[in-house]
Amino acid sequence: MKAALRTILMLGLTVVTTPAAEWPMFRGQPSLSGVAAGTLPDKPVLRWSFKTEKAVKSSAAISGGRVFIGSEDGHLYALDFGTGNKLWAFKTGGPVESSPLVLGGRVFVGSEDAHLYCLEADSGKLVWKYETGDKILGGPNWVVAHNTTNILVGSYDYNLHSVDAATGKSNWVYESGNYINGSPALADGLTIFGGCDAVLHLIAVADGTKTKEIEAGAYVAASVAVADGRAYFGHFENQFLCFDLKEGKQVWSYRHRNFPYFSSAAITQDRVLFGGRDKMLHCVNRDDGTPLWTFATRGKVDSSPVVCGDKVVVGSDDGRIYMVALATGKELWSYEIGRAVGSSPAVAGGKIVIGSDDGNVYCFGNK
Hints:
The chain is an all-beta fold. The chain contains no helices and 35 strands. It has strands at residues 6-10, 13-17, 35-36, 45-51, 61-63, 66-70, 75-80, 86-91, 101-103, 106-110, 115-120, 126-131, 141-145, 148-154, 159-164, 170-175, 185-187, 190-194, 199-204, 210-215, 225-227, 230-234, 240-244, 249-254, 266-267, 271-275, 280-285, 291-296, 306-308, 311-315, 320-325, 331-336, 346-348, 351-355, 360-365. The strands form 9 sheets. A 5-stranded mixed sheet has the order 3-29-30-31-32, with no helix packed on it.
């Protein structure tokens, strides 16, 4: 594994700290906490844009000076982080909404053609592909267990798959009760995900055995974020929830208006931030779910916010990307793209990379 990802082996698993110049997977790290290192400029400017043939709902991974992102045109693209120039493109058999994972010189990504692909990061050459029973929309995650690196990915075949990163061979398959739309989170020897079966699943990563099932109350389309033994997620019955994983009990719930939550949360030391289909970005107290502020956009917020220093970045279906103050929710900056921004931002090296339904990938940073 490259030195850019520093690893600490604990209890047979791998805990990752991500450097400021890297955003190697959806939400930045295996816990899916959505917090980036470093700082962002007060008034970012457009550094470059790259045009694909269809909408870009995938969220970018940034590693080794390259941006990796999927498009509804069926390609995974590798772009130069500095210039936006295309380095290579790999064609799958379906749209690529899944967010890529970059690990050990390889890129892992799902496609709506039901395959998980492993490619060489330098060249885009296919190393292996693994077939599930239906489309893959969520980004893959990874874990080291028993000295083997495994890739975890959910599928619309109702299953969570664990695949050997080196060979593409299945380790185990865990069956849920409905579609798995989001990415699985990692914490304390477990992978945690919510599904369209309205259940929060806790699975042992070593062998795929069920540790716990927690009734969520409605189907969960977003990825679950995990921090300090708690899981944070919203569902389609208009609630955002916090659960204690050890006890399997709800700690708090938040309801603002009668609109669903599709956005995944960003978790800081004392705050939880997430978008809603009520056209708002929400910020609540991490301990008890007390509302701290809301920021109104003009469209639903399915994009998952990223916290970087004292700033929060998120996209909206109103066609804008926004940056607001973490402390107050005050708007600091926005950029009008003009088409819906359901892609979630990737933040690394003081830059923001995000896709849009207009088919472009955008990079913002210092002048």
